[in-house]
Every structure is written in structure tokens, then in C-alpha cells.
């Protein structure tokens, strides 16, 4: 059984036991999070497609880490104008382990 969920403006295909990094969610390490935006649910030969979400379906996940990705460098420059700006950015993330997918 797998599901396609939406969180943080992105879509993820998840199965029970998967670990994935999503945009930062509120909660501490060890907390349980319920993701209710299930767009598609596949159970063997049975496929449920949401309009836009599948009614009554939910994915329960456990927070295993709250962290920050590697730093990226943002560099802006305008040629012949003497303008340049260098910045760094580290995006926050939440690592989740999928526990159950409930129809």
C-alpha cells in the first residue's frame, strides 16, 4: 500500500516505514504527526483518487529529526555597475518516518 500526500507545497509518494524530509512542521522529536492531505491511495489493485483529496484517508508519521539542510550560496551581480551581493541560506526541514497509512 502506498499513498501520495501533499505537505509544504510539495507532493511525496510514501509507503509504511519510509523516511523522508519535508518542509518544517511544528512539533518535537518523537511527536506524532497526522497528514490528512492524501491525494491518491493505492492498495493492491484498488486505487482511490481524490477530488482533490481522498475522504477519510490519513497518513500517520513520527518526527525523527528537526534540522537544516546544507548551506547554499546566493550570489547576485550586475555587470559593469560594481554591484554584487553574496548571501547564504539554510532551509529548515523535518524528517518523518511513516508509521501507518489509513483509508
Unreliable spans: none
Q: In total, how many domains does the architecture comprise?
A: 1
Q: Helix content range of the residues, please?
A: under 10%
Q: What structural class do you assign from the helix and strand content?
A: mainly beta
Order of helices and strands: EEEEEEEEEE
Report the principal-axis shape: elongated
Major sheet attributes: 4 strands, antiparallel
Rg (CA only): 18 Å
| Spatial gap, N to C terminus | 10 Å
Strand order of the largest sheet: 2-1-5-6
List the helices and strands and how they pair.
Elements: E1 2-7, E2 10-15, E3 19-23, E4 32-35, E5 38-43, E6 46-49, E7 58-68, E8 72-78, E9 83-89, E10 92-102
Antiparallel strand pairs: 1-2, 1-5, 3-10, 4-7, 5-6, 7-10, 8-9
GO molecular function, one term: rRNA binding
Protein name: Large ribosomal subunit protein bL21
Subunit structure: Part of the 50S ribosomal subunit. Contacts protein L20.
What would you say about this model in short?
With about 100 residues, the protein is mainly β. The protein is about 0% helix and about 65% strand.
Descriptive report:
14% of the residues are buried. The chain has 103 residues and is an all-beta fold. The mean pLDDT is 96. It has strands at residues 2-7, 10-15, 19-23, 32-35, 38-43, 46-49, 58-68, 72-78, 83-89, 92-102. A 4-stranded antiparallel sheet has the order 2-1-5-6, with no helix packed on it. Strands 3-10-7-4 form a 4-stranded antiparallel sheet, with no helix packed on it. It has a two-stranded antiparallel sheet with strand order 8-9. It contains no helices and 10 strands. It has one domain (2-102).
Amino acid at each position: 500500500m502506498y499513498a501520495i500526500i501533499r505537505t509544504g507545497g510539495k507532493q511525496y509518494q510514501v509507503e509504511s516505514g519510509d523516511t523522508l524530509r519535508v518542509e518544517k512542521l511544528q512539533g518535537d522529536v518523537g511527536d506524532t504527526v497526522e497528514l490528512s492531505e492524501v491525494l491518491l491511495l493505492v492498495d493492491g489493485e484498488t486505487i482511490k483518487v481524490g477530488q482533490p483529496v481522498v475522504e477519510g484517508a490519513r497518513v500517520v508519521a513520527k518526527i525523527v529529526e528537526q534540522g537544516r539542510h546544507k548551506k547554499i550560496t546566493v550570489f547576485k551581480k550586475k555587470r559593469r555597475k560594481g554591484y554584487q551581493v553574496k548571501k547564504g541560506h539554510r532551509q529548515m526541514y523535518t524528517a518523518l518516518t511513516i508509521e501507518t497509512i489509513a483509508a
